[in-house]
Design goal:
27% of the residues lie in helices and 32% in strands. The chain is an alpha+beta fold. The chain has one domain: 2-Layer Sandwich (hypothetical protein PF0899 fold). The strands form 2 sheets. It has a 3-stranded mixed sheet, covered by helices on one side. The chain has a 3-stranded antiparallel sheet with strand order 4-3-5, with no helix packed on it. Strand 1, helix 2 and strand 2 form a beta-alpha-beta unit. The two termini are 31 Å apart. It binds zinc ion. Zinc ion binds next to loops.
Length: 113
């Protein structure tokens, strides 16, 4: 599962941070996930529960900020909210959109102890 490999890479990053800071575990983790990142939140939650057990993220408080998709039309320059990667421009219907935000998948911050 795609989401499981994402969780595994978050665990790797968290373990590295805990080691770097000479800490024991993560108390809190803040994630940013874009609506265009192709992440199923249910699948992510399911993978998270299973994968973090016995790791530094076991019991960590998790916060997720959802970043809404935004695109800019390459023809007329209009910026608009994009529900998916193939949303046509609402003004001129041009199918080519530059994605400005919404593909994020990152760890914004970690609190270790
Ligand atoms: Zn346009």
């Amino acid at each position: 599962m795609h989401e499981l490999s994402i969780v595994m890479s978050i665990i790797d990053l968290a373990e590295e941070q805990v080691r770097t800071h000479g800490a024991q575990k993560v108390d809190r983790i803040d994630l940013e996930i874009g609506t265009l990142a192709g992440i199923e939140m249910d699948a992510l939650d399911f993978s998270w529960e299973a994968a973090v057990r016995e790791t530094v993220l076991d019991g960590a408080e998790r916060h997720v900020e959802i970043i809404a998709g935004r695109g800019r039309c390459v023809e007329c320059g209009l910026e608009f909210e994009a529900a998916d990667l193939f949303t046509a421009c609402p003004a001129c219907q041009a199918p080519f959109t530059e994605i400005l935000q919404g593909k994020e998948l990152r760890v914004r911050s970690l609190v270790v102890s």
